[in-house]
Amino acid sequence: MRNKRRIGISTAIIILVIVSLIFIFNTSKTEHDFITSSEVFNQEGEYFVYFWQEECRYCQEIEADIQDYEENGRLPLYVVDMTKPDNRELWYDWETHHDVNDVIIGYVEDGEEFYEEDPEVYLNDSEIQYELIIEDEQIIAQHQTAFFNPSPTELDSLDIVTTPALLHVSDTTQLVVGVEEALALLEQEQ
């Protein structure tokens, strides 16, 4: 009797796990029209290119809107998976950006911070976002505002600073970054 009960419970658990895996596999499938970085400017006519990462929480936030546009939108929408090795060349060079734009504004000695420049000048900058960090006993105003081309027309001038990003390829090509910006651009072309 005990063995029959154990077999029944084990069978029920196995069936539940299999059904759950099938559900997860089928609902997490992404049916996008993927292209690689080398194909971004090689499509016909006017179109969108959506720069995406599966694990990006902001991409997940607008996934339903992207899929709706793919099904009902006026223009074709292609997707570049920014986690793929072939597409990594598109990433903005944040390392060089920080090397050029970060500013050492103080130092730490015996656990105490000493400032040679007022950190509020950087923290209250209306055009550039800074973050204060301490690295190697130096206090650094880390420059967090990317300098990217909002109207790239070729691969060499295209930098993806983060995802989601959306490129509208047309007579007046436009690149936007962020959830609200991407949704607004899609809405313009409904």
Summed up:
Keywords: Membrane, Transmembrane, Transmembrane helix. 34% of the residues lie in helices and 23% in strands.
- How many structural domains does the protein architecture include? 3
Helical residue percent band: 25-40%
The neighbouring-strand order within the major sheet is 2-1-7-8
Low-confidence stretches: 25-30
The first-to-last residue Cα distance is 64 Å
Oligomer: single chain
Radius of gyration, CA atoms, in whole angstroms: 24 Å
Largest sheet, in brief, is: 4 strands, mixed
Instruction: Provide a count of the helices.
Output: 6
Order of helices and strands: HEHHEHEEHEEEEH
The CATH superfamily of the largest domain appears as Glutaredoxin
Query: What is the molecular shape?
Result: flat
Compute the average pLDDT.
90
Query: According to CATH, what is the class of the largest domain?
Result: Alpha Beta
Our estimate of the beta-strand percent is 15-25%
The name CATH uses for the topology of the largest domain is Glutaredoxin
* CATH architecture name of the largest domain: 3-Layer(aba) Sandwich
Helix- and strand-based class?
alpha+beta
Key features of this structure:
four-stranded mixed beta sheet, 6 helices, 190 residues, Glutaredoxin, alpha+beta
Structure, explained:
- The chain has 190 residues and is of the alpha+beta class.
- The chain has 3 domains: 1-30; 37-92 and 148-188, 3-Layer(aba) Sandwich (Glutaredoxin), CATH 3.40.30.10; 95-143, no CATH class.
- It is 34% helix and 23% strand.
- It is built from 6 helices and 8 strands, in the order H-E-H-H-E-H-E-E-H-E-E-E-E-H.
- The chain has helices at residues 2-27, 57-61, 63-72, 94-101, 119-123, 179-188, and strands at 47-52, 77-81, 103-109, 112-115, 130-135, 138-143, 165-169, 174-177.
- The strands form 2 sheets. Strands 2-1-7-8 form a 4-stranded mixed β-sheet, covered by helices on one side. A 4-stranded antiparallel β-sheet has the order 4-3-6-5.
- Strand 5 (130-135) and strand 6 (138-143) form a beta hairpin.
- The protein starts with a helix and ends with a helix.
- The relative contact order is 0.16.
- Residues 25-30 have low confidence and may be disordered.
